[in-house]
Amino acid sequence: MVGLDFGLTLNFGLTLNSGPTEAPVTTRSSSRPSGAGEAPDARRVAAVVGVLSLAVFMSSLDLFIVNLAFPYIAKQYPGTSLSSLSWVLNGYTIVFAAALVPAGRWADRVGRRRVFVIGLAAFSIGSLLCGVAPGVAALIAARVIQAAGAGLMVPASLSLLLAAVPAPARPRAIGTWSALGAFGAALGPVIGGSLVQVSWRWVFWINLPVGVAAIIAAIRVVPESGDDQAKGRPDLAGAGLLAAAVGLVALALVKAPGWGWSSASFAALLAASMACGTAMVVRSRRHHSPVIELSLLRSRQFSGAFVASILYYAGFGAFVLNSVEFLTGVWHYSAVVAGLAIAPGPLMVLPFARVIAPRAAAWLGGPGRVAVIGCAVNAGAQLFWYIQIQVDPAYLTHLLPAQLLGGAGVGLTIPSLLAAGSATLTPARFGTGSGILNTARQIGTVLGVAGLVAILAHLSPADLIGVYRNGLILIIGFFAAAGVTSVVLLSSLNTRRAAAPAPGPTPRPAPTATPAPVVADQEGA
Question: What single DSSP character describes residue 519?
Fold first, then answer.
């Protein structure tokens, strides 16, 4: 676990000199107000980015940390199948996805820091309940509470970051924020492999001290911000329809191997999912605070980042689970050894996300083109592993190169997709837009994990490698599709300059008695 001190003192290399075309963003209050006209203090901004990045690290870590706990949970509760255990992961992800956009809107309305702290508290309480769950059903229910907390804190954290960091420094800050999210997701099996040696319950209890420390730090160093003109309650019914649509697709994919891909039950679940999705879109057209703001999706750049994120995270989610299952099930690595075997990939994420991706975006003409390269690197890494995979362990020559390439691809792609989508957002849409982009990530993860579980359901001792190769084909297909989407919708755009901002209310100017406004570019970074 990354310590709080690391998050607060890391040098993020933020450039604090603002350009002449920037417009102020209203912040409602600040825990430590500066005098009027002062620029944000460099250390203060670094501390804000550290706290907010720590929160997204926690939420992403918990998305995948349970992978290596599955065998231990199944051992404690005999008769529990992989498809049932997958809902410990998918239940979290579906609720996470459904909560993101309403939470982003609520944060804009009542205060982003307030929602961020509430989310941290709910996440910590959910973690406690997960650790004391007496059975799988209770564990899934506790994961829902945990996911609701994560759904509150993640969009609030990104919108707080966009509001608190000056425009020239935002690409680097976004790179740090998204890199730590990806790092947490990829590092989940590593940390989980160590904790389950004590007890699988510690996979959840480890969040408690970090969550408490993050709450204290957020109250002390993160300035409050919001949209004073935000009105109306978020569309909770629309969020429920979104959760139902994604959950029904996941259920259909998980059950299809047993029911049959041409069965009436499978078709009925897909039809019900489409009906829920259609109803959600209809509500989004008419509701004053829709779960998906369709006007944002009219931007080619934003919609491209949205679709590419769904496809990329489907590949990423399937990749993490596939790696864990192969190492523990075929090479018979222990949980600790499997976690260590996966570790080199996550170690590649931070340098590529924080240093190489921003420089490549400046050199190539925008983050969209970097995303194309990242997707290609990820697909190539999995193709290499597809060719090299074998029953006999050969880590250094076969798996390690794929892990290193895959980590580099993650570091290039994830911050680039987020930067490309965020560049189109006006300050009034920071919470909503970040919620939509993060929703895409969770939807993709659910679909990828469910698809892989459907493939692994056909595992048999006679053809272990063949089944895992089928899983790799699925992963390669998702990464390639994300790359093609980025080529078509993002790479032809110079995404250093934002597309025309989506319509929306402009925050009211701050009264002269309030602290100095945080500077941000109206057209995004």
Answer: E
Q: What share of the chain is helix, strand, coil (3-state, %, to 5)?
A: 75, 0, 25
- Could you tell me the CA-to-CA distances from 350 to 19, 347, 413, 478 in Å, in that order? 28, 7, 12, 23
Neighbours of 288 (CB within 10 A): 9
What are the CA-CA distances from residue 240 to residues 99, 116, 246 (Å)? 9, 21, 10
CB burial class (10 A; 0-12, 13-18, 19+) of residue 393?
middle
CB 120 within 8 A of CB 55: yes
pLDDT band for 227, please (50, 70, 90 cuts).
low
Taken in order 81, 392, 340, 372, is the CA torsion positive or negative?
negative
Which of the residue ranges 123-127, 165-169, 363-367, 391-395 would you say has the lowest mean pLDDT?
165-169
- Which of 180, 132, 133, 139 is CA-nearest to residue 352? 180
Alpha-carbon distances of 90 from 97, 257, 448, 475, rounded to whole Å: 10, 18, 10, 17
**How many C-beta neighbours within 10 Å does residue 388 have?**
13
Runs of H (alpha helix) within 287-391? 294-297, 300-329, 335-342, 344-351, 357-364, 367-388
List the domain boundaries for the chain. Answer: 40-498
Q: Which residues contact 524 (CB under 8 A, 6 or more apart)?
A: 167, 170, 422, 423, 424, 425, 426, 498, 501
pTM, rounded to two decimals: 0.72
For domain 40-498, give the CATH number.
Answer: 1.20.1250.20
- Contacts of 75 by beta carbon, 8 Å cutoff, 6+ apart: none
238 Cβ contact partners less than 8 Å away, ≥ 6 residues apart: 102, 280, 283, 284, 287, 290, 291, 292
pLDDT tens digits along 52-62: 888 778 877 77
Residue whose entry in the numeric block shows the structure tokens 């019914």: 237
- Report residue 483: phi and psi, to 5°: -65, -40
CA–CA dist 9, 19 (Å, integer): 26
DSSP state of 233: -
CA atoms in the 13 A half-sphere facing the CB of 97? 27
CA angle 23, 13, 517 (to 5 degrees): 25
Q: Is 460 helix (H, G, I), strand (E, B) or coil?
A: coil
Show the tokens assigned to 324. Answer: 């864990």
